[in-house]
Design a protein that fits this description.
Oligomer: heterodimer
Largest interface: A-B, 33 and 42 residues
Structural class of chain A: alpha+beta
Structural class of chain B: mainly beta
Largest sheet of chain B: 7 strands, mixed
Order of helices and strands of chain B: EEEEEEHEEEEHEE
Number of domains of chain A: 1
Shape of chain B: globular
Helix content of chain B: under 10%
Shape of chain A: globular
Helix content of chain A: 25-40%
Radius of gyration of chain B: 16 Å
Number of strands of chain B: 12
Number of helices of chain A: 2
Largest sheet of chain A: 3 strands, antiparallel
Strand content of chain B: over 45%
Number of helices of chain B: 2
Distance between the termini of chain B: 12 Å
Chain lengths: ~70, ~150
């Protein structure tokens, strides 16, 4: 699995993700590679395992928020 | 007058929660544990957290063994949570000389799915950057800025 040479790509990818309709993924992790959502699930480790089966590239994992206020 | 090495400017991630606009300071980062494969995540800049915090499943995705016993307890708004700490390499920025890369201590909960999103706490990030949350400005100028200290 390879990391990116520049962080600019990941910033672009995040902007792309945030402009997608993610309603069906609320509360889940999504794995994104090259501006494509390749898999999703409730837990990050399971999603990474699945992503590694699909691609050798570094996955970008994003937790899609629910419609709740957030306080850690 | 404080001088900075560089500035990293990010748009807030905007959500609508119960018909209210919520602005969250979230940045894309790369995390890597030892020589394991790096994984990219988003992290919430959490000025209320002493240290950074990730869930058990996020730690496992980085190849960290989550079977070890907790060695600490953190107090949050929802109560106490057992944690252990690992040093994890974090990388973020815009590339080249505008990139921050450092091994930082990150607390790991023993709970899958908590915290909801990985949190970037004050230590050491707030020692490395002055962070300005410009939420009150007009929409196009409404950014948060991480200014790297020398």
């Amino acid at each position: 699995m390879s990391g990116r040479n520049t962080m600019r790509d990941i910033n672009d990818e995040y902007e792309w993700v945030h402009n997608q309709n993610l309603k069906k993924f609320k509360g889940k992790w999504i794995a994104v590679i090259n501006k494509k959502i390749i898999c999703s699930g409730p837990y990050a480790d399971d999603v990474v395992k699945e992503a590694k089966k699909i691609s050798k590239e570094t996955p970008f994992l994003i937790k899609v928020p629910t419609e709740e206020y957030l306080s850690l | 007058m404080v001088k900075y090495q560089y500035h990293l400017s990010y748009d807030f991630t905007v959500y609508t929660v119960k018909h209210t606009e919520v602005l969250r300071p979230i940045i894309p980062v790369e995390l890597q544990y030892k020589e394991n494969d790096p994984i990219e995540f988003t992290m919430l800049i959490d000025s209320g957290a002493d240290f950074s915090l990730i869930s058990q499943d996020v730690a496992a995705s980085l190849g960290i063994s989550t079977k070890r016993y907790p060695d600490d307890t953190i107090q949050g708004v929802t109560g106490d949570t057992s944690t252990f700490t690992e040093k994890i390499m974090i990388r973020f920025g815009m590339g080249h000389k505008y990139e921050f890369k450092k091994e930082i201590p990150i607390q790991i909960t023993k709970i899958r799915g908590y915290p909801f999103i990985p949190a970037l706490g004050r230590d050491p990030i707030f020692k490395e950057f002055d962070i300005h949350f410009r939420m009150g400005l007009p929409i196009k100028e409404r950014k948060f800025v991480l200014s790297k200290l020398f």
